[in-house]
Amino acid sequence: MESFLIGFGSNQGESSKNCLLAVEKLRGRFPLIRIIRISSLYRTKPVGPVEQEWFVNGVLQGETSLTPQGLFAVIQQIEKDLGRLRTVPWGPRTIDLDILAYGERTVCLPHLRIPHPQLHKRLFVLVPLAEIAPSWVHPELGISAGEMLESLLAQEHDEEVQLLEMETS
Questions:
Q1: What is the CATH superfamily name and number for domain 2-163?
Q2: What is the pTM of this model?
Q3: Does residue 103 sit in helix, strand or coil?
Q4: Hey, which end of the chain has fewer CB within 10 Å, N or C?
């Protein structure tokens, strides 16, 4: 089994529900995947050139016997099942699932880059990542998630990340 980190987010429809549904689909439908830890959900200001609603984001940690490409195929299917349409780059989406890391591997394919090339620059990734795996070390940069977050927080940025209070039943 290989460890992995997946970032997830949504800003269309019931965003929190979309995120939780994606996690459940990943957990329930695929016996070769085991979810270990799931971050809190965070409300995050969109990054990029497209005017759109705020996102709900989180990160999960798991293990799998799938290859990186196999795991990518699974998350692409979940996105499709949840109505993801790729019409506008960096635009609104019902669900977005990104492999942030896969063990200590580096994957560089036209459709898949691991570790995710922007993860060390994004608060909406680093805040939930540092919550669940602060000592995870980036295989290319050689620094931990906690250190990446601390470094990014020390810089000027326009991102806003707020813990999303969830209703308990």
A1: 7,8-Dihydro-6-hydroxymethylpterin-pyrophosphokinase HPPK (3.30.70.560)
A2: 0.93
A3: coil
A4: C
